[in-house]
Amino acid sequence: MPPPSFEPAPPADSASGVIDEVVTKYADHLVDLRRDLHAHPELSWAESRTSDVVMSHLEDTGWQVHRVEGGGLVADLGAPGRTVALRADLDALPVEDLIEDPWVSTVPGVAHACGHDVHVTSLIGAGLALSEVHHRGLLHGRARLIFQPAEEVMPGGALHLLAHGALDDVDEIFGLHCDPSLDVGRVGLRVGPLTGAADALSVRLFGKGGHTSRPHLTEDLTFALAKLVTELPAILSRRLDPRAGASVVWGRIHAGSAHNVIPGAGEVAGTVRMLDAGAWAEAEQVVRSLIGEIIAPYGVTAEISYQRGVPPVVNAARATDVLGRAVEAVLGSEGRVPTRQSLGGEDFGWYLDRVPGAMGRLGTRSAGGPTYDLHQGNLRVDEGAVTIGARVLAEAAVVALSSRPDSF
Length: 408
Known about the structure:
The protein is α/β, with parallel strands linked by helices. The chain folds into 2 domains: about 15-195 and about 310-400, Zn peptidases (Aminopeptidase, 3-Layer(aba) Sandwich); about 195-310, Alpha-Beta Plaits (2-Layer Sandwich). It is about 35% helix and about 25% strand. The strands form 4 sheets. The chain has an 8-stranded mixed β-sheet. The protein is elongated. The two termini are about 40 Å apart. The relative contact order is 0.19.
């Protein structure tokens, strides 16, 4: 959708005042923009239209926008010096959109079921606000916007942008993620681990099949597969430190096509998740060893695909406080609420492996309304979260750039 004409905001006494006025001015447009993005979702590594929309909104507002080869955009604003980055993810999911709003997805089988349409729109809004903050001489350093492709696939598009220098010269990075279990007007914050490490695991078993009346003449692959499904999660929790919270959950199981045939091949696939980065470093070796031990009595062979995904998101103390101050500036002290670590994977963790930063959980549930779940086609968000996200992200950049690195 076309960007609004960009005009300077009315006079304001502070960067916070400028942010509030600019976001208020474009509030209706940002909501319409989020609906447009929701109606036109794009899968990982194919976010062309979404990137065009971002480009059209920023290129004439003072931002130096660079389109990264292979996907994503990076935009810079301000004078060289201390640099703070803000990040949003562009991609949608291969999920059927089940909402009944006029802005339902126009792409069959693809939907913004994780709120990335909100993330992108909020960061565009923050970019418009920071442009005016810079114009007024109130931006004390340089801001960088990172619009990242392919967060929804392992190991995540963050690595692609890191390889193209997205964090070069960056001192801190901030992001928000929609939280449909949290009311709009609240942002959940936590120092330390926020999400878990997540890997993808698939195992194909092969053996001599046969008739179910003569299992002793076969390598009973279906039984071996069942043992693998039940025993790997149980044994892994005994081989890794239980404080790591290791979890294996299967999403797909397939073997055979007839009730009286023991098949010669079968497959199981799922995710391996844990809370601790140290355990994550040894998880693959442990999982591979356990699979061999579990299937050995049944004479079958295994073909294992273990894809290391993303590390935990670990929020730095100072950066979390910066984000908290930004939340309080926008929503008051009641807007800043504690949150717990989850086992959900988020490739924002790759950025935090390089520089300190923090991610917050942006409340998207209407007060008194139903609680939805991420990655489900019926996800609905309270659109008040769009402008709140824009204000908080812009404010975080201003607070971070206006304070000493060793403060707080």
